[in-house]
Predict the 3D structure of the following.
Amino acid sequence: MKKTIAKTIGFLIAAAAVVVLVGSLYTVHPKEYVAVRQFGRIVSVQDTPGLRLKVPFIQSIQRISAKTVIYDMQASDVITRDKKSMIADSYVLWHVTNPTLYIQSLNAVQNRAEERIEAAVYNATKNAISSMSQDEVIEARGESLTSLVTSEANSDIASYGLEIILAEIKALDLPEDNKEAVYERMISERQNIAASYRAQGEAEAQKIRNETDREVTVMTAEAKRQAAITQAEGEAEYMRMLQEAYNTPDKADFYNFIRSLDALKVSLTGGNKTILLDKESELAQILYGTGLK
């Protein structure tokens, strides 16, 4: 009987020891904060992965994710400096940087955190866009606008132990009733730019054509001048050669005879074969056989 009681007591003691040991141990996982609380007060925060000890039954733990969270915000209306309405659709990447503040301010509830983040990002987006005209917003959309919104939103949520890594406007659109007018204005602007480019191109093309025509005129005139010089030189050479060839009386008479025959040949072309000649002319003397002796 005593042995049975002793065994039971030993078993109970062992079981209690196991319960105490289990209640004293907890594990910290990667990308996680673990806050140790005693009577509701935070006594420590662990963020290094591994096995840890706490006081059983007196201390409790609260786990908080240290991972980056993506939050897709609702699209909202914003007004530009020139009173144009636009629709901003954003998403946010955020994480917890101070788990103690996160617990104290929001009790580490993610939905509450995202409510604060959405309000901060909306206000930052509204302030940024309201300081720009619609054209400036379209031009600034990208890294500069993202940086501005992220920085301003972070200043509003720092007291919650949160940090916005990125507040990105994924879509910046126009209300349906404004789209058509804006599109028409953009088309008109692009057409004006295209017309300007075409006019510049035509002016440049005309300039090239004028320059080419001038060069062609100069080259043609030079070629004609050279041709005239060459022709004159050729004729001079021809006359010199004729002069050398007929520099004696006999050769001169022979040359005149040939010329006379050529003239006669020309006269006899066509349908009229009648020639009226002076009896004393060289052609008449040739025909009578009395010339060129």
